[in-house]
Design brief:
Radius of gyration of chain A: 13 Å
Number of helices of chain A: 4
Mean pLDDT of chain B: 96
CATH class of chain A: Mainly Beta
Number of strands of chain B: 19
Shape of chain A: globular
CATH architecture of the largest domain in chain B: 2-Layer Sandwich
CATH architecture of chain A: Beta Barrel
CATH superfamily of the largest domain in chain B: Probable tRNA modification gtpase trme, domain 1
Order of helices and strands of chain A: EEEHEEEEEHHEH
Structural class of chain B: alpha+beta
Low-confidence stretches of chain A: none
Oligomer: heterodimer
CATH topology of chain A: OB fold (Dihydrolipoamide Acetyltransferase, E2P)
Helix content of chain B: 10-25%
CATH class of the largest domain in chain B: Alpha Beta
Strand content of chain B: 25-35%
Low-confidence stretches of chain B: none
Helix content of chain A: 10-25%
Strand content of chain A: 25-35%
Number of domains of chain B: 3
Distance between the termini of chain B: 46 Å
Largest sheet of chain B: 6 strands, mixed
Chain lengths: 128, 360
């Protein structure tokens, strides 16, 4: 069973955001990393790039295929997780500890459009 | 989702092993069991077994069997000894590829053709449409044969010891029969290996013995990474009705000195006058991974398209096969690949990213 963490917000495309004040840490969920298999490359945006909720901001790639990353929130990228550049497999090891981008949120209210842990867990179960 | 895909005789065993199953060529096929990387490495370093029962088999027998095969096949089987296998293509009049296939010479005027799963219906129709004037019997045996590919440096010992099938006397691209079982030293991985064609019952028994003996079950995921690394084409990616074997750089399997075969005139013209696009290898400097369908770019202009691309498991490089305008096909030509919103620099390299280890 895929791991879900309380207090995070989740999208139907299996990204999460952990909100910390005006910042959001965005990554892919445990369900997503498991479905992808071995992650071999994470294509990340540049610092200062703008991201829009519901829009693509990069990709995670397994051996077989590339999957778009869809941002669950809007804002400005203030940091990318450089560790993933050389060690993309960190996403498989712990998808929640290894966020992909840190975003300065333009609208913290946007998280209301996302699922909480319980709703996301039910959503994942309905995917089978 | 409603599915009408076919299943091989081993489908239940793949499910029991927890395989990820996906549609391929009209079949629900195992893509991976342990993971593509682990399965890939098992084949490169030890041995792995693939269910390739989805492949099609057609037999050609009768007085004109050899003449017929010569007519539809780009390679030259004239004077072939019984037991020899040839790789080549069937082409349309315009040189486009109907399919790539193996031709096994089982006896005088007795041939066993192995075709791609996705093309079985199309090939069968094509083969029948070409048989006027030939005294032959064509039979589509695709439903009656199961097929296993045992691949890797330990495959000979595995087939001999685990399956009890004598195979060490087989040289590369030769075949023998043991009762109703057909066994050949062939494969699609760049490693030594064997392919076994037999009844569904026999194939199921072999599969169980191999799995019990600890042989790694391998899915189509690593079949693709393995074949790609050694530059073997996949119909639909590197060959198609639009991509001729000459464009794909497979001219050594097109015997233009043969007096007649379908597509010969067009292929001869391509060979002598040149082709608009050619298949090349491209290596990227960056880690970004080129994928099927991505554009190849030069000075802002689109000059081609990626046919297959990976971060190679054996060498860890971002490489692809791509069809590009012929003037950019020379080795070391700098080109770029459009990956999502960015372009990444690379250069044209040989179409082989890893050396084959056949036992000849």
């Amino acid at each position: 069973m895929a791991k879900v963490i309380e207090g995070l917000f989740y999208s139907e495309s299996h990204e999460y955001v952990r909100v910390d004040g005006e910042y959001g840490y965005v990554g892919i969920t445990d369900y997503a990393q498991n479905a992808l298999g071995n992650v071999v490359y994470v294509d990340m945006p540049d610092v200062d790039d703008e991201v829009q909720a519901g829009e693509e901001f990069g990709a995670v790639e397994s051996v077989k295929a590339a999957s778009d990353l869809i941002s669950p929130v809007s804002g400005t990228v203030v940091e990318v997780n450089d560790a993933l550049e050389d060690s993309p497999e960190l996403v498989n090891q712990d998808a929640y500890a290894n966020w992909i981008i840190k975003v300065q949120l333009s609208d913290t209210y946007e998280t209301h459009n996302l699922m909480d842990a319980k709703a996301y867990q039910e959503f994942c179960e309905s995917q089978h | 989702m409603e599915t009408t895909n076919k299943r091989t005789c081993l489908y239940d065993k793949h499910v029991a092993l927890g395989a990820l199953i996906s549609p391929f060529g009209g079949f629900d096929m195992p893509i991976q069991y342990a993971g593509i990387t682990e399965e890939h490495n098992a084949v490169r370093e030890h041995v792995g077994v693939f269910d390739v029962s989805h492949m099609g088999e057609v037999t050609v027998k009768g007085k004109d069997a050899e003449r017929y095969v010569q007519h539809i096949f780009t390679n030259d089987i004239a004077g072939a000894p019984v037991g020899k296998i040839y790789y080549g293509m069937m082409c349309y009049d315009n040189g486009g590829t109907v399919d790539d296939l193996l031709v096994y010479k089982m006896g005088e005027n007795d041939f066993f053709l192995v075709i791609n799963a996705a093309n079985i219906d199309k090939d069968w129709e094509w083969m029948n449409a070409q048989k006027d004037g030939f005294d032959i019997e064509l039979v589509n045996r695709s439903e009656s044969y199961g097929q296993l590919a045992v691949q890797g440096p330990e495959s000979e010992a595995t087939v001999e010891n685990v399956l009890g099938l004598e195979c060490k006397e087989l040289t590369f691209y030769t075949v023998k029969t043991i009762g109703d079982v057909i066994i050949s030293r062939t494969g699609y991985t760049g490693e030594d290996g064997f392919e076994i064609y037999a009844s569904h019952d026999f194939i199921r028994t072999c599969w169980d013995k191999l799995i019990e003996a600890g042989v790694q079950p391998c899915g189509l995921g690593c079949r693709d990474t393995l074949r790609f690394e050694v530059g073997l084409p996949l119909y639909g990616d590197e060959l198609s009705a639009e991509i001729s074997p000459v464009m794909a750089g497979l001219s050594i399997f097109v015997k233009l000195d043969k007096p007649e075969f379908i597509g010969r005139e067009a292929l001869l013209k391509q060979k002598t006058e040149g082709v608009a696009r050619k298949l090349v290898g491209i290596e990227l400097a960056d880690k970004a991974i080129p994928r099927h369908g991505y554009k190849v770019v030069k000075d802002g202009q689109e000059i081609g398209e990626v046919t297959t691309g990976y971060r190679t498991i054996s060498t860890g490089k971002s490489v692809c096969l791509a069809l590009v305008d012929s003037q950019y096909a020379k080795l070391d030509t700098p080109v770029e690949i459009q990956i999502r919103k960015k372009t990444f620099p690379g250069k044209v390299v040989k179409k082989k990213f890893y050396d084959k280890h056949y036992k000849k």
